[in-house]
Design brief:
Elements: H1 7-34, H2 39-47, H3 66-79, H4 81-101, H5 104-115, E1 120-123, E2 139-142, E3 146-157, E4 164-170, E5 180-186, E6 192-197, E7 208-219, E8 223-224, H6 230-266, E9 268-269, E10 272-273, H7 278-306, H8 312-337, H9 347-356, H10 365-377
Parallel strand pairs: 1-4
Antiparallel strand pairs: 2-3, 3-7, 4-5, 5-8, 6-7, 9-10
Helix pairs in contact: 1-3, 3-4, 3-6, 4-5, 4-6, 6-7, 6-8, 6-9, 7-8, 8-9, 8-10
This protein binds flavin-adenine dinucleotide.
Flavin-adenine dinucleotide (FAD) binds at residues 89, 122-125, 129-132, 155-157, 200, 208, 357, 360-362, 364, 366-367.
C-alpha cells in the first residue's frame, strides 16, 4: 500500500500552496469583511490552469483527476473558504453534467469558458427542499423550437459571479424523478434574474443567491442528456463532487490546526506556554489525529474515483468525517485562542464560521449517513 502522493502531485501541491500563501492568505480576511468576490485572484487561478484542471483535455481542459482537484481545493480552502466554494462549484459540480452527459456543442461551448475563468453555477435546491429534491417545483414546458422554464432556485453558489450554469426543472411534478431534466444556460438569458442574496454565517466573499426563472426560453440544444434524465445527472454530479467538499473541510481544518499549534507555542498562562498544559496538548493531539483520518479518507476516495470507481460510499464517508472533524478542530482552535479567538482579530473565528456549512451543502451529514447505510445494507 502506498499512501503518498506521487511526485507530480507533490509538486502541484507545493505550487498551489505557494500561491495561496502569497496571494490568498494575506487578503482573505479583507475579502470577507467587504463581501467582495476576488476577481483578480480568480483570474490568476485561471491563468495558472487551476480552473481547467479537471476538465477534459480535448475541450481545453487540463485532464487532471479528482486527486489534483482535491489538492487544489484543500489548499485554496486553507486560505479562503469562500474562494474554495466558488472553485469547487464552478470547476467541479457545475461542469460534471456537461462533461459527462453534454452534447459535443455544449462541451465545446462551456468547457473552454470555464477553463478561462468564467464562473458557473449548479442550480438544484428549491425553497421547498434541498435534501429531498424529487418533488421539484421549477417547471419547464416544451414547444417546437424551445424549452420554457419557470420557478425559483435557492442557495445558489456563484449566483452573482456566474456567467452560465446548469439548472434542473420538471415537466410535471407528478412525474416524480422521471419528470426532471437538466439544462445548460447563460445567466443573461431573458427571464433569468437574481433573487435574494443570502446573509450567510461565513464564506462571504462568494455570493449565494436565489435564481429566478420567469418564462425563460432556451433553445432545444440546451438540454443536457435526455429528457427525464435530470435527476440522475444531478445525483451523479453530487456523488462525484462531494469528495471536493471533504477536501474543502480538510483545508479549513488544517488552517485552524496550524493556528492552534502556533498560538500554543507562543502564549503563556500560569508560568508556562499553553502547549505545556496537558488539556491543550490533548486538544492538539485529538485534532492532529482527526486531521490525519480526514486526509486519508478524502484522498482514498479521490484515488478510487481516479481509478474508475464511483466511490459513493467512500466519498460520503470522507465528506461526513472531514466536515464534522473540521467542526471539532475549529471549535478547539477557538478555545485555545481564548477570548481573542472569539474576535475578528484571530483568523480561527473565520475558520469556524466557514467550516459550519461543509456539514450542510452537497448533502447534509444526515444524507451522507443515509448514503453510507444504503451502500452497506445494499438498499436501493
Ligand atoms: C452556503 C450554501 C451554498 C449552497 N450552494 C448550493 C448550490 O450551489 N446549488 C444548490 O443547488 N444548492 C446549494 N445549497 C443548498 C444545499 O445543498 C441545501 O441547503 C442542503 O442540501 C440541505 O437542504 P435544505 O437546506 O433544504 O434542508 P432540508 O432538506 O430542509 O433539511 C433540513 C434538516 O433535515 C434533515 N433531513 C432531511 N431529510 C432527512 C431524512 N430523510 N432523514 C434525516 N434527516 C433529514 C437534514 O439533514 C437537515 O438537517 C447551498 C447551501 C448553502 C447554505
Amino acid at each position: 500500500m502506498d499512501f503518498e502522493h506521487d511526485e507530480q502531485q507533490k509538486m502541484f501541491r507545493a505550487a498551489v500552496r505557494e500561491f495561496v500563501d502569497s496571494e490568498v492568505i494575506p487578503k482573505a480576511a479583507q475579502w470577507e469583511d467587504e463581501e467582495l468576490f476576488p476577481w483578480d485572484t480568480w483570474n490568476q487561478l485561471a491563468g495558472l490552469g487551476l480552473c481547467s484542471l479537471a476538465l477534459p483535455e480535448q475541450y481545453g481542459g487540463g485532464g487532471g483527476g479528482k486527486t489534483l482537484l482535491c489538492i487544489a481545493t484543500e489548499e485554496l480552502a486553507r486560505g479562503s473558504g469562500g474562494l474554495s466554494l466558488a472553485y469547487l462549484v464552478s470547476c467541479g459540480i457545475a461542469m460534471d453534467g456537461i462533461c459527462i452527459h453534454g452534447t459535443e456543442a455544449q462541451k465545446r461551448t462551456y468547457v473552454p469558458r470555464c477553463a478561462q475563468g468564467e464562473v458557473a453555477f449548479f442550480a438544484l435546491t428549491e425553497p421547498e427542499g434541498g435534501s429531498d429534491i424529487a418533488p421539484m417545483q421549477t417547471r419547464y414546458r416544451s414547444t417546437d423550437q424551445e424549452f420554457v422554464l419557470s420557478g425559483t432556485k435557492t442557495f445558489i453558489s456563484n449566483g452573482e459571479e456566474s456567467a452560465f450554469g446548469v439548472v434542473f426543472a420538471t415537466l410535471n411534478p407528478e412525474l416524480g424523478h422521471k419528470g426532471v431534466s437538466a439544462f445548460a444556460l447563460e445567466k443573461q438569458t431573458p427571464g433569468v434574474s437574481l433573487g435574494k442574496r443570502e446573509r450567510k454565517t461565513g464564506q462571504h466573499c462568494t455570493s449565494t443567491t436565489e435564481l429566478v426563472f420567469d418564462e425563460c426560453t432556451v433553445p432545444k440544444d440546451a438540454l443536457i442528456g435526455e429528457e427525464g434524465q435530470g435527476l440522475i445527472i444531478a445525483l451523479e454530479s453530487i456523488d462525484k463532487s462531494r469528495v471536493s467538499v471533504a477536501a474543502q473541510a480538510l483545508g479549513i481544518a488544517q488552517a485552524a490546526y496550524d493556528e492552534m499549534v502556533r498560538y500554543a507555542k507562543e502564549r503563556a498562562a500560569f508560568g508556562k506556554l499553553l502547549g505545556q498544559h496537558q488539556a491543550i496538548q490533548w486538544m492538539i493531539a485529538d485534532s492532529a489525529t482527526e486531521l490525519e483520518i480526514a486526509r486519508l479518507l478524502t484522498y482514498r476516495a479521490a484515488w478510487l474515483i481516479d481509478h474508475g470507481d464511483l466511490a459513493i460510499k467512500e466519498s460520503a464517508m470522507a465528506k461526513l468525517y472531514a466536515s464534522e472533524a473540521a467542526g471539532r478542530i475549529c471549535h478547539r482552535a477557538v478555545q485555545v485562542f481564548g477570548g481573542i479567538g472569539y474576535t475578528r482579530d484571530a483568523p480561527v473565528e473565520r475558520y469556524a464560521r466557514d467550516q459550519r456549512v461543509t456539514e450542510i451543502y452537497e448533502g447534509t451529514s444526515e444524507m451522507q449517513r443515509w448514503a453510507i447505510a444504503r451502500q452497506v445494507l445494499g438498499v436501493k
